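Lab manual, section 2.4: Encoding a predicted structure.

Procedure: take the sequence of the chain (243 residues), apply the prediction step described in section 2.3, and record the output as structure tokens. A sample record is shown.
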Amino acid sequence: MSTDKEKAPETLSIFVSDTVKTKEVPPGTPALDMKEREESLPPEEVEKRRKIMLEYTRLSGRYCEPHNVKSKWVEDTDLPRVLADGKDLVAMCNLPRGKYSGIAALSHPQIDNKNPLRFFVLPNGMVVINPVIIKHTKVPLFKNEACMSYPDKPVKTMVPRYNKITVTYQTLSKLDEKSDAVLSNPITEELSGGTAHVFQHKIAHLNGNNLYDEDFDPIKCVGLLGNDDPIDQNLWKVKIIKK
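Recorded output:
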């Protein structure tokens, strides 16, 4: 739960995927021998399946090669990109890739290696913007972990993650139904277990670090630039939204 007194903003419906659903896409490769099935299907069903596969191919092609480019802090002027790319990211969360059938979250650097923005999305449509870990437990625990940016690599074992973290982030909010999306007030939450691990994995991407990097270290998930330096408080001088 949010530790702020204000009510947490609701997820915008634009981030709810209404295109490709996991159950409509076969696991593994998107290649299908459609001709064998089309003969017994009505034309409208054939067209529906073709559109699904076209969209699946488009979304799967959005992945970029793993890289170490640090993401840019999201400002109001970046919201059009967040909205456009965020919707694709949510849809991609529900699609199989390589050895893996789904994903816990997806970050913008996983589809943009030129000018990635500091945000990631969850499969339920929630968008997490400008996340920064401000506190964590001292001794990490170990778990197995994989990454959709490395779809053919085996699950990495003994991955060190802090079991409890405190994170500050923003999301998208709307003052009313007619207004445009805006950045919410900063939200501070204490997370533990699997949710804390997901946040650390995604923030590492945003900091320009990857799970399979040779110099991978859990401390690279902390702070804005992947270290314990004090966070620049000027970054959090955002306009306070009146509820």
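Check your result against the sample. The CA atoms of residues 211 and 223 lie 17 Å apart.
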